[in-house]
Amino acid sequence: MDLQHNNKRTAGETPARQAGEEPPSNVVLKNIRAVSELEQSALDQRSLGERIGDGVSRHAGRAWFIVFHFIWFATWIILNSGFLPGMPRFDPYPYPFLTFAVSLEAIFLSLFILMSQNRAARQADQRAHLDLQINLLSEMESTRILEMLKALCEHHGLDAGLGDDIDQLAQPTEPKTLVSELKDRLPEST
User: Fold this and answer.
1) Structure letter (DSSP) for residue 15
2) What span, in angstroms and rounded, lies between the C-alpha atoms of 68 and 80?
3) Contacts for 171 with CB less than 8 Å, ≥ 6 apart
4) In the chain, what is the greatest distance between 2 CA atoms, to the nearest angstrom?
């Protein structure tokens, strides 16, 4: 999500809601602000080349870009077709200069798009690492809560009715074991 295209809001300002929609809690708003600030920070840290690459990629993916090229090619072909009296052909069929110009444009457009995608992939990797950290912390917290709940139930002589499930769930999850198990069980992609 490219936040530079969104309207910037002040810290206390919230977007308009539909009728009957509950306002988000302060915790949710705090999280939204934190994520927005991280996204804006990542956008602000881009180099000039990355900003240009993102701009070119963004505009190349729009309908006006296609329309512009259609008009450009049609005009070029009409001007070089000989249909217009008094208009010399500066690039006769098979239009070698047009081919040259389009090839150069395609090369640079591809490089700008790759540069933009590489930056987006780096940012996605950072988000994935953050997600993994948060998930591991959440799992650890859940395990501790289950351990405390189990101890409370035992202390008060209550049967939670979960049997062995609670014992298994209360065990810490080892990410390396899960990764190894997934590698062994998932089919290899071709």
Assistant:
1) -
2) 18
3) 143
4) 102
The average pLDDT across 70-99 equals 91
Structure tokens given for 4: 């530079």
- Of 6-15, 133-142, 148-157, the range with the lowest mean pLDDT is 6-15
pLDDT of residue 120 exceeding 50: yes
Place of tokens 């994935």: 128
Predicted TM-score (pTM) of this structure: 0.62
Closest CA to 72 of 114, 113, 105, 111: 105
ω into residue 96 within 30 of 0, thus cis? no
Q: Chain-centre distance of CA 96, in angstroms?
A: 39
Q: What is the Cα–Cα distance from 22 to 17, expressed in whole angstroms?
A: 8
Residue 22 backbone phi and psi in degrees, to 5: -70, 140
Q: In one letter, which amino acid is 17?
A: R
Q: For the stretch 101-130, what's the b/e string if a residue is b when 16 or more beta carbons lie within 10 angstroms of its beta carbon?
A: eeeeeeeeeeebbebbeebeeeeeeeeeee
Q: Which amino acid is at 58?
A: R
The alpha helices in 8-163, defined as continuous H runs, are 26-44, 48-60, 63-79, 96-155
pLDDT band per the 50, 70, 90 thresholds, residue 63 = very high
Contact 11, 36 (CB under 8 A): no
Rounded CA separation 76/190 (Å): 44
